[in-house]
Structures are given as structure tokens and as C-alpha cells.
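Q: Here's a chain of 110 amino acids. Please give me its 3D structure as C-alpha cells.
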Amino acid sequence: MKNLRNKVQLIGNVGMEPEVKDVNGNKLAKFAMATNESYTNKQGERVQETQWHNLVAWGKTADIVERFVTKGKEIAIEGKLNTRSFEDTEGRKRYITEIVMQEVLLLGSK
């Protein structure tokens, strides 16, 4: 069970072109991914709910993202949740939760 600690697996669609940059000699890729869930409400109508996830990839995983991941592409990812804080321009403390990717699998057609 120790392998299940802080583990995230998602399948969804890339919502934006990945932003790739160099941070102290290490490649970093950031982008958002949408996952969809459907259910039937009390009125019998089909409802689709979309959740957006912030994804971060480092090193070799960032290389794969840079080369193959584009907006709209369906991917599967595995990683861990990471929450960090920062101060905005007005001095207020803000928090962001991201999924730090450890693996990416390209799905769908080429």
C-alpha cells in the first residue's frame, strides 16, 4: 500500500499548449488538462462536468511533453499532488495545487 501514497492517475484532454522553459539547467513544462464526468440529474437530463488540473513536468518527462503534447490531445498521466504558496503582486499569500507528472501516455489517434 505504500505505493499508493500521494498518487494521481488521470485521463483527459490538454487544454492549452504546454509552456516549456529552462529552470537552472532543468527543463520544466506546465499546462492544464481537463477531465470530464457525466451523470444524470433529478430531471433525467444528462449533465457533463469538467474539472481542470494544473500539470507540471520536469526533465525527461518535460522533454516528452515538449515534443508530443499539444492542445486538444488526449493523454493519461501519473504523478503526485503538490501544493505550494506564493505572494501575489499585492502581497497576499496564494496557494496553488499542481500534479507533478512522473509518467505520460499519449492516447487517441496520431
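Q: Can you summarize the key feature?
A: Helices lie at 59-68.
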